[in-house]
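Thread amino acids onto this structure.
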């Protein structure tokens, strides 16, 4: 056998091993992404030995959003802005604070309305018209 024959066999073997390594990494990444609820059916199709197409992942807004909401590290690995997760957390906190402020304002208005109702009741008892402030 000639040296060229071994050379091509070595190249074939190296090519297959390389494709196997890429396939293993791609499957691991797909499995990691598939752990996120709703992402399994959104993963882009690929051929054996080909890496996961990050551009296709980034072009799918739903998949991008789900990844970004789940894990900033995975988002960064996929080339997705990991700041999205931080902004989502900040927005949740802002909404919670706004809801709390609204609840406090509502409580103050309720108390104010109760006081005004008591004043009107007292005025009616004492014979004062609550609309005009004059005695009947």
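Threaded sequence (136 positions):
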């Amino acid at each position: 056998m000639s040296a060229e024959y071994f050379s091509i066999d070595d190249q074939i073997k190296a090519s297959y091993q390389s494709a196997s390594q890429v396939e293993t990494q791609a499957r691991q990444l797909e499995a990691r992404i598939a752990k996120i609820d709703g992402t399994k059916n959104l993963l882009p199709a690929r051929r054996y030995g080909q890496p996961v197409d990050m551009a296709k992942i980034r072009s799918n807004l739903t998949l991008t959003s789900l990844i970004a909401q789940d894990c900033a590290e995975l988002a960064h690995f996929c080339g997705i802005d990991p700041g999205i997760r931080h902004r989502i957390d900040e927005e949740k906190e802002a909404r919670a604070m706004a809801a709390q402020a609204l609840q406090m304002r509502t409580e103050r208005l309720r108390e104010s309305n109760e006081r005004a109702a008591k004043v009107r009741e007292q005025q009616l008892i004492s014979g004062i018209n609550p609309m005009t402030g004059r005695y009947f």
